[in-house]
Each structure stands twice: as C-alpha cells, then as structure tokens.
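Researcher: We're teaching a course module on how sequence relates to structure. For the next exercise, students receive a sequence and then see the predicted structure as tokens, so they can try to spot secondary structure elements on their own. Here is the exercise chain.
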Amino acid sequence: MKRLLLLLLTPAWLVATQARAGQFTIQFDFTGSSVSMLGGIAQIPPDGSIASASGQLDVSAAGLATPIPGGNAALRNFAMAATVNAATFGNAIQGNVALNQVGGGVPGVLTPGLSSVVFGAPMQIAQSGALGCSGPSCAILGLPAVLGGMQLVALAAMPIANLAQAGNALISGTYAITVAGITGQLHLVGTEVSRVYVPEPASASLLVAGLCGIAGWRVRRLLRRR
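Model: And here is the predicted structure for the students to work with:
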C-alpha cells in the first residue's frame, strides 16, 4: 500500500528516470589487436594475422549512452583466432592459435570517471590449435606443439574510452599471455560494433504502475471539478 501511494505521489519524470535503470551490452570487434612473442621478435601481425576476434562488455546504465559511474561491468564471450607465419632465429614457425573465454564472464566495476573497468578476477581462457616448426632451435622453443589447456589472463584495469558515446566505445590494453609455453603480450584493441540497452524488468514495471497511477489520479481530479 505504501509503495502504491509513493508511486501515485511521485512525479512522472522521476518515475521515468528511475525506470531506465538497467544495463547495456556492447559488442566489440577485437581484430585490430596484436600479439607479441619472444620478446617482440615475433609480432602478429605482420608475422601472421588476427583472423577473428570479438567479445562483449555488460555495463550498468541508465540509458543507451548513460553508463553508471561505479556501476557493475562484466567481460564475456571473448574469442580470438590467429594464424602464425614467423621466421625467428632461423626457424620457420607456422600454425594457428585460438583463445576462447571460459565461464559466464569476468565481473568488474566501472571507475567513476568512466575511463576503465577494474576486474577483481582474471579471465580464464582455453587455448587450442597447433604450431609447426622447422629449423635449428625448434626443440629449445618446445615446438612443434599441439595447443591445449587453460590459462589465466590478469585483466586488472582495462582502459576504455567513449563509453558514453553510443557507437564509439574503444578498449585498449596490454596483457601477459602464454602460448605453447612461450610467454608474450596480447595488445587488446576493441572497437564498438553494436550496443543494446535492456532496462531492469522491475524498473519497467514501476514505470507502468507509476504512469497508470498518475493517470488515474488526474482523471479523478477532473471528475471532481465537474
């Protein structure tokens, strides 16, 4: 009863503002990323290519272009596939590598300045593919190798720009990875492909109830005047 009374007395614009609480999901294209291995001697690209790469970022928001500072965020469905065609230390290394995020998503918090997402846990990824090698140092590099297993990628604070501009969000950050036992760095560059906003169901219900209550109050007021 108290909740209904509050809705009846709340201005329509305030109810509408409260009802927009929810989240937006941004789909990112990460094909502009790069991988550096063997201390930067092998770089993909140009020593290969990023064949495909994508991922999603969920952000608490009050509208399509209104992220909530300090709100929740989550990275999910990250996947990357790369080809390798490198010549290092007199060795020819060729093959393919795939990285796929495992689990429902990595939870984080959007900083108050909307400049980055701080993650409290690493991203777990599964690697697959195979690397062939011919040359004098292949055995030292542990190649050729069939790729498999899991690894944790520490995301820490992921820099992000233009989050409040629909269609222009940009992710850029560098993270340590390991492929076939060889450590390297993943320079992750993501550009926004699409954005979808979904209000919280409870908030949407409040909006309908509030507007209906206000409409009923206005009708009763008009009838009394007559």
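Model: If you want an answer key for the exercise: The longest helix spans residues 201-225. The CA atoms of residues 147 and 177 lie 13 Å apart.
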